Amino acid sequence: MEVHDSQPSLSRRWTDWLGYIAMRCVICLIQSISLKSSDRVCRLLAYALAHWLPVRREVVDTNLRIAFGELTDAQVALLRYKMWHHLLLMICEIAVAPRKIHRTNWYNHFYMPNKRQTLGVMLDARASVIVTGHFGNFEVAGHTVGILGLPPSAMARPLDNPYVDQYLAEFRSAGGQKILPKEGSSTAVQELLESRGTLAILADQYAGRKGCWVDFFGQPTSCHKALALFVLSAKAPMLVNSTRRLDRPLRFEMSTIGIADPELLNSPTPPDYLSSVQDLTSWYNARLEEMIRLAPEQYWWLHRRWRDVPPAVEKRLAAARLKQATPQAAPSPSSTA
């Protein structure tokens, strides 16, 4: 099995290997029982993680209160429990997806309310960019799109454990999906867009103080500028995609929340969100927020999405909010004559 070029210490290699063996044993157990039984186990483990074990509890609770304002302790605890249940169930779905979902039965697992619109963009002669977040089961979505004959190239950061990372890469590529490293892949992305391929990106990760700052749930956050640049420079339509679990495990709604098509810049009234990298970044974050509000328990509140904001950025965003909230004065009769 391939591992990364860096040479960790012997103890680290043993730790990584034992962690990988433990993960494979858990996956074998998941694959040997029914998904319904796995769901029951996930609920028990989620209760322990949410109420007994302080696993990133402070980060989760802080994020929930930033996003939704004044929640009671009981409301936060319930969302925390449901989030852990979703994450654990997501692992179970990934473990069984290659055995359960095939080209002949995918429609038993996925409901696509705007299938024509989504496939129309992906089958267009131009390149396309699929944007989503750590919401729902995006991993199973990528696998399923691949077995349908529309495999995207996804950008992903390698995991710290190289053996687990290799296993996840094999799952992602099983349906034809290609994985591009998040660092140093600008040339590969450019070649992909020039060859009219499909790029898939998780767009809800903190990009540092030099990123593109926009509001997310009403609070400033930093986003990578490259995503909007890819769309605007390649004239590639952007689809904001949601894969939300419905009433049972391995049953999802895969929908397109919004499409930003640079071709609209040639229309008589081009949309404002295509006018700049800042505006497009703000637009797709609003769409991500829209999907998360549909099922907040299916979002990864584990990430530190909001961090210290530079004073100049806070001042600029506050002015933009004020301008947006101020109603425009009605034109006088003389100005319309």
TrEMBL record:
<dbReference type="GO" id="GO:0009247">
    <property type="term" value="P:glycolipid biosynthetic process"/>
</dbReference>
<keyword id="KW-0012">Acyltransferase</keyword>
<keyword id="KW-0997">Cell inner membrane</keyword>
<dbReference type="Pfam" id="PF03279">
    <property type="entry name" value="Lip_A_acyltrans"/>
</dbReference>
<dbReference type="InterPro" id="IPR004960">
    <property type="entry name" value="LipA_acyltrans"/>
</dbReference>
<protein>
    <submittedName>
        <fullName>Lipid A biosynthesis lauroyl acyltransferase</fullName>
        <ecNumber>2.3.1.-</ecNumber>
    </submittedName>
</protein>
<keyword id="KW-0472">Membrane</keyword>
<dbReference type="GO" id="GO:0016746">
    <property type="term" value="F:acyltransferase activity"/>
</dbReference>
<keyword id="KW-0808">Transferase</keyword>
<dbReference type="GO" id="GO:0005886">
    <property type="term" value="C:plasma membrane"/>
</dbReference>
<keyword id="KW-1003">Cell membrane</keyword>
